[in-house]
Fold this protein.
Amino acid sequence: MLFNSFGFLVFFPIVTLVYFLIPQRIKYLWLLLASYYFYMCWNPKYAVLIFISTAVTFLSGILISRFKTARAKKWAVFGSFAINLGILFLFKYFYFAVDNINAIRTFLNLGEYTPKFDIILPVGISFYTFQALSYTVDVYRGEVKPEKNFLKYALFVSFFPQLVAGPIERSKNLLSQVNEEHHFDYLRVRRGLFMMLWGFFLKLVIADRAAILVNTVYDNISAFTGVQISVATVCFAVQIYCDFASYSIIAIGAAEVMGFRLMENFKRPYFATSISDFWRRWHISLSSWFRDYLYIPLGGNRKGTLRKYLNLMIVFLTSGLWHGASWHFVIWGAIHGIYQIIGSATKNLRDSFRKTLGIGDQNPVYVFFSRALNFVLVTFAWIFFRSANLPEAMEAIRRIFTEFGGIMSVGDFGIDIPNFVVLLLSVLVLFAVSLWTEKDGKALEKTENMNFVARWTVYLLLIFAVLIFGVYGSGYEASQFIYFQF
């Protein structure tokens, strides 16, 4: 079930209404049933996988608390990771492994191996697997106590607002909220619904409209010039941000309506002044997951400069592979790892040069050019993310630097002028709101504190924008969120 589907517009009000009407002691059971129904709307049989992940990590928490020796506790952690990552490998990386093995076999003239079964990637498997595994580690570290109620723990793993595309929640935050009493609160519900409305605006008005232009170019790279590919790539930078951020915002808003507080997942990433700053703002729940459960355990920056750089590359290569079972995703991750290493290695030199020129780090011109350069670097890397494969990405880059082409028209991108104007105006609205929020981080609070007329003017403008200018997919079918494939 997609957030931007008619089914969700029926499902969510019913779930919320019943949630506030039933007794507190069974609220979690109702949400658990609703969450499994929500997930099973894609493919009912894959609910078995999320149940197995839930059962394994729940059991690992119990075993860790009962085992007396550190060695036994580590075996419990190992078992949890082995089973969960084994399932993830089978359903997400099996064909990737087969393709690479076949490449080697072909080189050695051994013939190709053909699997005798088909595997379909379950929606959201990477998200709920990482969320469940973080619980195992948190219990092992003593940061949370093992949950004794299996059904409450199952709700933590499957909580429907953030189940299939995040934020990737921690047990320290979300699991503890399952036991809290949540009552209807008008101001909280109003705030949550407003966040959901803003999320729908980002998805339906901006992301899905930008997708028309992006798909036209990237579905046939060889037919477009370097300038056209560059424009499409910039549009993809807008599309993927609005698409992914919209899901997180809708998820956070939906949870807020019911009284749950989810972590912020995006913090105006294109306002970042460095790549490290970008990753503190982009997909925060994943980047912090890798920091806490991979980078720091590897040694972080505690074992010397070379080891720090190696750890950074391991993290970003893993991040690329997490996003997709293909080499172009791995290269995308490697590029960001290289960015991070170069940024870290040259930081002292750059700071010294800046201070010599008497330029402060808050100088408006310095900040502007830092943001512009960072956006260019991030957008260049998006070429590998958006391309269907590595050869296509290399062809896109070749054309950008060699095939400049002539005069362009809007029609070249598969979009008409009215829709292009709507896209530009919508992006300007997003930029203005982001700039307003960047200054003090209180745009939401300020909107809530407006007088009745001003506040409802904002509400109605967003509602009309979504209803009138929203793009509802081919044949008015809901358009899938990009990160569902991960």
